Amino acid sequence: MQRRNARSDEENYKTMFASSGLRKSHLVFPVIVSNSPSMIKSMPGMAVTPVRRISQRVQSIADSGISSVIIFGIPKSRDPIGSSAFDRNGIVQDAVREIKSSFGSAMSVATDVCICQYNLTGHCGIISYGGRINNDATLKVLAKIAASHAEAGADVVAPSAMMDGQVYAIKRELHNRRLDASLLSFSAKHASSLYTPFRSAAFAKMTTRLDKSSYQVSYSNSRVALREIETDINEGADMVMIKPALMYLDLVRMVKNRFNYPVAVQNVSGEYAMIKAAAMRGWIDEEEWKVRSIASIRRAGADKIISYFVLDVAKYL
After folding, report:
1. In CA terms, which of 5, 69, 162, 283 is 20 to 30 Å from 232?
2. Can 144 be counted among the known catalytic residues?
3. Of residues 189, 212, 276, 290, which has the active-site annotation?
């Protein structure tokens, strides 16, 4: 077998990123925080970070030249409405305060605004009698969560619940409390099994399969996704999100062409896990696929890329 030239590969990767216009400022690293550390079995190389070590973790991210993170929380306990999500001393709020205390404006901090990790069902909305999602009740909780994150120092709040009116409800709450935080809306979060590796960490004790197709976007209907995005833009979102990444790059380009609006894309846990798993079996070249995945997202038009591969590819930028 012919030996590969590592230096040549590195130069090729640098050229690929340069041609796609990728910069470190486009990259956002996701950090999952909890009260205790643990490795995520279905995401080789990824771990849950305890709050007491969040500054060390963020320092390692800053050392790679990355200046943006998004925080996802896993609480100690759950209740029907996910009240720990808006607790002033909640897991995300504590992490944000620690990061901003240590890094100030040198590290931009976004936060996931949802109740799925904090309630008993794992759904992104409050379940009413009869098993239906109570959209209006959920909006009130989402607004309280976002405000608590902004009070803790978050630069960006990112609602991911896919509830109708979530952007307007959060913007109004932030305005009423005179809180200054940008809003990144998960506008087109598609129903997908590609979230499963993350859910294995967030819902470790949950055995039932979560079906969120009643409020997340269908793969097959780009018109609905575009309508969701347009609605969030009209409600005042500062940036819109498309998630997952690789199967929806056509949608990224549609949004840029139609709205010319800032777009973020999340390269989700399942996309990460597939590349890792195939590479561990020798079926693909991991480094090549990491680089090309991120380059393709940028090439499609993404202004921000949230990815577990961020620290791996930063060395080529």
Report:
1. 69
2. no
3. 189
Q: Is the pLDDT of residue 221 over 90?
A: no
CA torsion angle 88 92 94 99 (round to 10):
-140
User: What is the residue extent of each domain of the chain?
Assistant: 6-316
| pLDDT at residue 201, rounded to an integer | 77
Assigned fold of 6-316:
TIM Barrel (3.20.20)
CA atoms within 13 A on the CB side of 107: 33
Model confidence at 86, in pLDDT bands (50, 70, 90)?
very high
Question: Taking 50 as the threshold, does the pLDDT of residue 1 lie above it?
Answer: no
Spatial neighbors of 184 by CB under 8 A, at least 6 apart, are 110, 156, 157, 158, 237, 238, 239, 240, 241, 264, 304
189 in active site: yes
CA-to-CA dists, residue 288 to 200, 237, 296, 298, 314, angstroms: 27, 34, 12, 16, 14
In angstroms, what CA-CA distances link 179 with 71, 104, 222? 19, 17, 34
Instruction: For the chain, give the mean pLDDT.
Output: 93
pLDDT band of residue 54 (cuts 50, 70, 90) is very high
